[in-house]
Every structure is written in structure tokens, then in C-alpha cells.
Amino acid sequence: MMEIDEHYGVVSWSELRSRAVTLAHLRRAMREEKLRRLRRGWYATPTADAMVVEAVAAGGVLSCLSALKLHGVWVPTHTKKVHVRARESAHRQGRSGRFCLGYGSPEPEVSAVDDIRTAFRHALKCLDDEGIVVVCDSILNKALLERCDLESLMASAPRRIRRLLDRCDGKAESGTETMVRLRLQLKGVTVRSQVQIAGVGRVDLLIGTRLIIEIDSEEFHDRSAEQRERDRRRDEEATRLGYVTVRLSYKRVVEEWAEAERTILDLVRRREHRKKLPTGRRRRRRASPPAG
């Protein structure tokens, strides 16, 4: 029997046949409980990924945000549902509310988990504007696709959706960084991403000359004592050099943003971000040469 781990433990009969698996092989695998039938033409191993099993058993394949996450894309976690794409026949059977829709023509079910391109096209209808930019930033940052690929995949979407790509910079290493950058930019704040600061290192965001924003990327971010100590020393060094650091947890960004935003905007209103950094002894201006 073929190895199907790369299919997340779920495989179609057409895929099995392409690997020279016969009907006799399939029946034996089912008798030995190495495979079980999910629906007509689709089978799963005992250790198959639970989300993939749910998607295929529901009548489709894993797609949209669920598939993007499996491909390594940072996706917003405000929804816990399994995102499923199905053929047109499933929609005609009155189950359209269960499935994700995409812009453009429908595509065949090739494997149990959609490739990143197909998953992205369907995510465009499941995400709000911020979420689309978050996903695009993550794809670009991880070099999973090029910007021209995203432009092509968004070609069938409305112009308003296509223009969101202009708000991506591909520098953010997490979705929470993109969220904070976008929200501050909407307030008229100029923000730079992933800035290298001498003596401090690379920071997530920098406002003006001296306001550093550092952001946790994960919902359940359990930093070790060593990591916390490293962060503390880094913040101390930044303070010594004249910088102001604001650290934001995942919860602060996703659930308590109003308070976090107020803190940052108060600093900006007081022009803390524009104050000059200490430079040690002032350089003496060179005297002008005597006339004549």
C-alpha cells in the first residue's frame, strides 16, 4: 500500500490507482483497518489529520484558512471552523452554507488538502480586509508565493479586494505585526517594519525615531524564563540608548486593542516618537576658513 502521509492521511481512489493500487489491495487494507471509507472514493488512515477527515467526510476537501494554516501561512484565529471547498454538485444539493466559495471558476478536487493557490483564492471571501493583508504579508514573508502570483490569484476579485495588496509589505514575521501596522497607519501614524537598530537588534515596528513596538505572535505564547530575561535586557539597552519600548501580547492586539492603541497614540501625541536620541558629545561645527 502506498505511503499517504503527504496527503495528511486522506487519499482519493483516483490517487490510489495512480500509484498502482488495485481494488484488491484497497479491500485488504480496509479489512485490516489500515484504511476506512469517508465517502465515495475517499479513504483515511487511522492516524489521519482530524480536520482533513472532517472536510472530506463533509463532502469536500480542506481549503481556505484551514489549508493555508497547514501550508505554514499565519492566519487569523478568530474562527475555529474547518474550512471546506466542494464541487458545484454539493452546492446544488442545498449544502452551500457549509462550504467556502472563491472568486473565479471552480476547480476540481485534486487532493484532500487544497494547494496554497486554491486555498488563497477561497480565503479572499472568508476574510475581512485586514485578514487578507495579514495572509498576503505572511505568504510574501515566508516566500511561499511571489507578489505577482498573488496579483494573478486576485484577478477575479473586485477591485477593492485587489487594491489591498498595495497595503502589504511582506516584512512582518507574524500576523499580529501586520495588524498593528495597519491599525496605526489607519490612524495616520507612519510605521516601519522590521527595523535594525544598532545596539538593540531588529525590532518589529518603529514609529518615528525612537518608539519601538514589540509584538507576540501567538495566542498561547509561553515564553521561557531565558527568553523573558533576554527581552528585558534588550528593552533596558534600548532605554539606555534613548528609545521607548511598548510590548504587546497577542491578547492585547486581538482582544484588547483599544487600550493598546490608546497607549501608543498618547505617546505619539506627546511626540515621544520624535524626540532626539542622545548622541553623546555634540560634534563641533567646522569653522569657516578665513576670507581672503
Give a nutshell description of this structure.
The protein has 292 residues and is an alpha+beta fold.
Mind explaining what this structure looks like?
This protein is of the alpha+beta class and 292 residues long. Among the domains are: 49-126, no CATH class; 175-269, Endonuclease, Chain A. The protein contains 13 helices and nine strands. The protein has helices at 13-18, 23-31, 50-57, 64-70, 88-95, 116-126, 129-141, 147-153, 159-162, 175-186, 225-240, 250-254, 257-269, and strands at residues 10-12, 36-39, 42-44, 61-62, 84-85, 191-197, 201-207, 211-215, 244-248. Strands 6-7-8-9 form a four-stranded mixed beta sheet, sandwiched between helices. The chain has a three-stranded antiparallel beta sheet with strand order 1-3-2. A hairpin with a 3-residue loop joins β7 (201-207) and β8 (211-215). The N and C termini lie far apart (95 Å).
DSSP strand count: 9
Encode the helix/strand succession as letters: EHHEEHEHEHHHHHHEEEHEHH
Distance between the termini: 95 Å
**Average pLDDT number:** 88
Poorly predicted sequence stretches spanning 5 or more consecutive residues: 281-292
Described by strand count, sense and barrel closure, the largest sheet is: 4 strands, mixed
Gyration radius from CA atoms, angstroms = 25 Å
Global geometry: elongated
Strand content: 5-15%
CATH architecture of the domain at 175-269: 3-Layer(aba) Sandwich
Helicity range of the residues? Answer: 40-55%
The level-1 CATH class of the domain at 175-269 = Alpha Beta
Q: CATH superfamily membership of the domain at 175-269, which one? A: VSR Endonuclease
CATH domain fold name of the domain at 175-269: Endonuclease, Chain A
Quaternary status: single chain
Q: Structural class of the secondary structure composition?
A: alpha+beta
In spatial order, strands of the major sheet run 6-7-8-9
Number of helices: 13
Domain DUF559: 178-266
Pfam families: DUF559
InterPro entries: DUF559, Restrct_endonuc-II-like
Protein name: DUF559 domain-containing protein
